[in-house]
Amino acid sequence: MDEFVRSLMENYGAFGIGLLMFLENIFPPIPSEIIMPLAGYQAAMGQMSIITVIFAGTVGTVLGILPWYYLGYFFGEDRIIRLSDKFGRWMTMSASDVRAADRWFRRYGYWAVFLGRLVPTVRTLISVPAGLAQMPMPAFLLFSTIGSLIWTSFLAFSGYIMGQNYELIDGYVGPVSNIVVIGIVLLYIYRVATFKPENRRPKAKADL
């Protein structure tokens, strides 16, 4: 996996990191916990500056959460839950996940968008209730960008620090990252295999 990120950076530079982070928020084949540390690690190797890595990762993240915001803004809760029943198996998103993000947003308000970027279980889905509540876009972008910047910076600097100790950990980075990715793929397969649509709460009829 570290070879994949390395080749992506060599071929596409900051755009490749931003693209990966964008896709990670749309569909999570590779989590940010893998992408950004490895990008930071490569920055320490001189491929690009750590500031560029953080900027690219933050921009990619913010762009990746916008579709979820507009999903909530235009579809409404009933339709989103219907979508989760239909396609949640592949999106690893159940109706209970949507409701949990909605409760988080109702409890913390706008701050939920900021705090949610730091919590793996709600980091992407918190955009849905923000859209449902029609949170003003400037506020949504501000809180999302600050939270995403903190998260990507933390991950990138962790990889950057590892890169500065290259001689000590070079033999471990590749195998460890591969093990983590394999574990994530197996978890995804398990969720797909065991996914069951949930009974929806009775609400007013809404067509997709």
Automatic annotation (TrEMBL):
Name where it mostly resides: membrane
Q: Which residues form the VTT domain?
A: 30-160
Task: Give the subcellular location.
Answer: Cell membrane
**InterPro entries given in the database record:** DedA_domain, VTT_dom
Keywords, ordered alphabetically:
Cell membrane, Membrane, Transmembrane, Transmembrane helix
Indicate the transmembrane segments per the record: 12-30, 50-70, 138-160, 172-193
Could you tell me the superkingdom of the organism this chain comes from?
Bacteria
* Any one GO cellular component localisation term in the record: plasma membrane
Topology of the protein relative to the lipid bilayer: Multi-pass membrane protein
State the name under which the record lists this protein.
Answer: DedA family protein
- Native organism is Aureimonas fodinaquatilis
